[in-house]
Amino acid sequence: MRVRDAVGFHPRSTLSEPRREYKQMLECQKYRVHFTYTGRYGSIRMPKNADPFCRNILKGFLNLLTLTPRYQKEYEVLEDGLEGECNTRYVLYEEKKNNIYLFNRIRDLNNCKQKVMLNVGIPFFHLFQQPNCFQRERFVQGTSAFVTKVKRDNKGDLITQVKSEQVLEFPIGGEDATGYMKAHQLLNLREVRPDQGQQQQQQQQQQQQEEGELEVTSIRYEIPKSLFFARDGELQQRSCTTG
Questions:
Q1: What are the start-end ranges of the E strands in 40-116?
Q2: What is the DSSP string of 122-187?
Q3: Which of 35-39, 97-101, 128-132, 210-214 has the largest mean confidence?
Q4: Which in 56, 133, 146, 155 has the greatest CB count within 10 A?
């Protein structure tokens, strides 16, 4: 079976291919992020004039490098990230021959504190639904998995590669019908540039002037204000039936 993504209101209108925002993503490269990092992030500062789309793209890169190392082979922590503070399980593998450590990190997106989310729908809609139907419609399972490769030498630890996969599973109608969305990311270290001292500081100051004023933010996803308003007066209707 082959599945293609499309947008529209079926069957009232014809579905069309979604717009690809490659140009908008490339424009985000002009912005820089200033942060302190010790595995977890301290202060994060971004340009005030950057739109939420670019800010979220940059936060997505930062989220890949989040790491909470412990002197244990397996452990669980409450770790902050794009979705909020979520229960995260670590499994550590060591390749002693190559001085490489592999951190396998699994975030349970259904077990989070201060979760970043936006509920869209009619208030008290569940009062008019059959109980089983409502529970099935709102039950979405989410998991993010990361594999971080760390190289250790006399100079310290260096992250050389990060792989990630996020899966969201949700009901799409019927008792056993389930759909899912999957996203992959791969980050490879290409080069390590030496510290250029004063010249580098001057370049950073010039970039900061071009970017404008910076503001302190968190690593969590920012929901664009445009999502709070209906577009073109369209109201999406949902229906649910049980057998």
A1: 41-47, 74-81, 84-95, 100-113
A2: -TTGGGGS-HHHHHHHH--EEEEEEEEEEEEETTEEEEEEEEEEEEEEEE-SSSS-EEEEEEEEEE
A3: 97-101
A4: 146
Question: pLDDT band for position 132 (50/70/90)?
Answer: low
pTM of the shown model:
0.72
The ranges assigned to domains in the chain are: 71-193
- Bridge partners (DSSP) listed for residue 149: 102, 161
Contacts of 114 (CB under 8 A, 6+ apart): 84, 85
Model pLDDT, residue 113: 87
Among residues 62, 105, 69, which one has the least CA distance to residue 87?
105
| Topology annotation, domain 71-193 | Lipovitellin-phosvitin complex; beta-sheet shell regions (2.30.230)
Structure tokens at 70: 């412990």
